[in-house]
Design goal:
345 residues, alpha+beta, seven-stranded mixed beta sheet, four-stranded antiparallel beta sheet, 10 helices, globular
């Protein structure tokens, strides 16, 4: 049956198109053609199954410079992004029996309707790949905290794009996915790099770079219960108080020495501390626990530290007593341009 559909669907489409005024015939033939091609691709691709579970890695901004305020009110940024082994888990499967895509999530308060970035990514993929009749069922297990500056939602969307493409037999190239991603978010394109990239513009201009030398064995993340609105942080930003360090020189420093010699700087940290003074106090407490390099990621409110604390058990108790999200993680990478995603540890 699948072979017959694959062979004769294009002929049906051509024949239907020749029937002037018969829009129903064209639509029916197109649906047969699309369904046949998708089923054939899924069956033929050895690496494709009917279900995929993907890591949605969190990210850090190892440095973040605000270059300028643009005429449209947005800001041009220059930042070194790095993926982490911490991340959500997205399970995606084809669901031909459903009338529309579905999303389930284990975290209370996370929207599962069309406003969620996973749903937006699936809609975007189907529109761009011209396969509107395909249906997906998605299940999201949240591990990356929200309002954290860790790119959780963007990573979920990137994994949804990659997974949908894989389940349909890779009809789109990775470059296609990278370019399409900019339609629904600035940071999503980054996750199609190898895991380390220099990002400019609003974050959507991605220059993949090689993995940093001598990656740290430990990266600690700490986040208070409070979040911060990104627009509020940018509104509080005083452009006159930004760092004057050249982003290209910052990048070169990391590429030569990794995190051991690279300079951690985030122009959004001072305005975030102004909005939430307790965050500055938390950074001071982390240094008191022996962390040498501590910085806020993105627009907050996560602080990250390179390397271990002086006493891990003591620091863990400190975080637990204050209801702080905390975890020990590490850098992760993937082979950009391949048909493989980020692997779980």
């Amino acid at each position: 049956m699948r072979t017959l559909q694959r062979l004769f669907a294009p002929l049906l489409l051509s024949r239907a198109a020749a029937l002037h005024g018969s829009g129903v015939a064209v639509t029916m033939a197109r649906r047969v053609c699309v369904a046949a091609l998708v089923m054939h691709s899924v069956a033929a691709a050895a690496t494709v199954s009917s279900s995929l579970t993907l890591l949605c890695p969190a990210k850090l901004n190892l440095f973040l410079r605000v270059v300028r305020r643009r005429d449209d009110g947005f800001h041009d940024l220059a930042s070194l992004f790095q993926t982490l082994s911490l991340g959500d888990r997205l399970t995606l499967q084809l669901a031909p029996e459903q009338e529309e895509d579905s999303l389930a999530c284990d975290a209370p308060g996370v929207p599962t309707d069309a406003s969620n970035l996973v749903r937006k990514a699936l809609d975007l993929f189907k529109a761009k790949a011209d396969i509107p009749d395909v249906r997906f069922a998605a299940t999201l297990l949240k591990r990356t905290p929200a309002e954290a500056g860790l790119g959780g939602g963007s990573s979920d969307a990137a994994a949804a794009l990659f997974g949908a493409n894989a389940l349909c037999g890779f009809p789109a190239s990775e470059q296609d996915l990278l370019e399409w991603a900019g339609d629904i978010g600035s940071d999503i394109s980054f996750f199609f790099s190898g895991g380390t990239a220099y990002c400019t513009g609003r974050g959507e201009i991605v220059r993949p770079v090689a993995p940093l030398p001598n990656p740290p064995e430990q990266v600690w993340l700490v986040k208070p219960p409070e979040g911060l609105s990104t627009p509020k942080v940018f509104k509080t930003l005083d452009l006159e108080k930004r760092s004057t360090l050249d982003p290209e020189q910052l990048l070169e420093g990391f590429m030569q020495t990794g995190t051991s010699g690279g300079i951690l700087v985030n122009d959004l940290e001072p305005p975030a501390f102004e909005c939430l003074p307790s965050l500055a106090e938390l950074k001071g407490s982390m240094k008191e626990h022996g962390f040498d390099k501590v910085l806020m990621s993105g627009s907050g409110t996560t602080l990250f530290a390179i390397g271990p604390p002086s006493d891990e058990s003591s620091f863990t108790r400190f975080c637990e007593d204050r209801n702080l999200f905390h975890c020990k993680t590490s850098f992760t990478q993937r082979e950009a341009g391949s048909k493989t995603w980020y692997a779980e540890d």
